[in-house]
Amino acid sequence: MHLTTFSFQKKCVSLFAVVSLLSLIVFSQDSKAGGKASHSEEYPAINVEIASYLSPLRDSSGVAKYRLALCADVPNNKRPLQVAYHQESGHVFLVLQKIVPGTDTLHRVFGFYPRRGLPTLFFKTISSRIKDNSYREYDVEVSLDITAQHFDTIMAMAVDLAARKYHINKFNCYDYALRIFNAVAGDSTLPAVYVRFPFIFGRGGSPCSVYKDLTRLQSSVFWGSRIRFGVMRAPVSTHVR
Length: 241
Known about the structure:
The protein has helices at residues 2-22, 50-54, 148-162, 173-183, 207-217, and strands at 46-48, 65-73, 91-99, 106-114, 125-126, 128-132, 137-146, 166-167, 195-196, 203-204, 227-233. It is α+β, with helices and mostly antiparallel strands and 241 residues long. It has one domain. Helix 3 runs antiparallel to helix 4 (173-183). The longest helix has 21 residues, at 2-22. The relative contact order is 0.20.
């Protein structure tokens, strides 16, 4: 009788542990505010069709310059290597700028998301979507000045990768942004590092990986001047709102 009761209690504890772990996976990537209340209510993340979203940045003048930034919003600013905090896991996204002398700079701020948040609790592979991340708070960025030819590469990859299914371990916001960034980084690509999540789904890309790698790369000759840390806000995507 006691053994049966003990066995039942043990199963209940195990079930409670699993449920508790699952509760940590309410991804900030798919929340209305984008995590840590990091959006102004005026700028909730919105779905975009990536090809038409990026096409206004094409250069017809021949004088445009471009800049691409990889940005990471960690879930806990005080402990930036903590993978999950208060049911948030952070976000990795891109800021693409078109700079034409004498005119306003055009911005596109975007990231990769699961189509729905809740199914990630039960299914690793689900439909995806791209969202505009205007005014998103973030903690670290690395940027590159790129050419119009690089823009064409970014455009093609952003469209192609947006068709991928979202996978919590194998292809999430980290993978989408990092692959696009590395496609125009030449011989100085950033490492792809996967960390053990504090829940049952295993290893995956995380904004904490970006933060840790950029901390290390601050001392490198190439990347040092291109990295910034601090509490920052992404610009607003021009003519999107």
